[in-house]
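Meet today's protein:

…
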Amino acid sequence: MTNTFFRTFSSEQYKLSKNREIFGVLLLPVLLVFMVDGYIIYKANTEVFAESLTNPWTVLLGRYVFQFYNLLYPILVAIFVYACCDIEYKNNNYKILFTIPISKTEIFFSKALFITLVILFSVILSYLAFLLSGYFLSLMYPEIGFQNYDYREVIFYTFFKLFIALSAISMIQLSISLALNSFIYPIGFSMFMVVFSIVVARKEFSDFIPYTGTYKSFENIMSENNSFARLDYSNIAMIILFILLSYYLFKRKRII
């Protein structure tokens, strides 16, 4: 069973890694951090920082990076997850998948595991880029004051909770992509939920909307919040709920 799952996961990894969308999920968030670095360097060379008396991890790096992450990350995840499903729709690959002597359960969970690992590596790379950017700026521009604040714990928990939120979003998008063979619906839904989550972010029920997690990440980094809240526990529950729903939808796929 273990060997079969490993072989199935290896084949899924090889097949899905051919998607160009994987590079967007892995590299665009990192590139965005470096672009913000460029903006900070430009400001440092052209003007005196009014923010120098406050925490630059929040008012400079965190504020700009997470404002973009709030808008960018859920849509990137939606595109990537749909691409992982679309590769099966092309040339009716489901017909091939369901005729080989491997259970649908192993095929599905190897795909879900691959999606989760890609998101994990994406967040880790973004986390490292964020940390290294602060250290680099503290060496090159000590007048900004990055070296005056130990913000590592807050940054770790902010990115950790971001990963939980993105994992929940990925499972929701997987359910939609399995149910609807159309690029418009999963991507359109993700874009709508990004806007909707911002509008209702102050409402109590927003804690049950995983897409609010990216907006709350911005609030966490700004308010130096490193504690788990109801939203984070809700997102963990959503991961379980929607992976089961996705599994049910995958099992019901028929050979045409």
User: Anything to note?
Assistant: The first helix runs from residue 2 to 16. The radius of gyration is 20 Å. The chain has a mean pLDDT of 85. The CA atoms of residues 7 and 110 lie 9 Å apart.
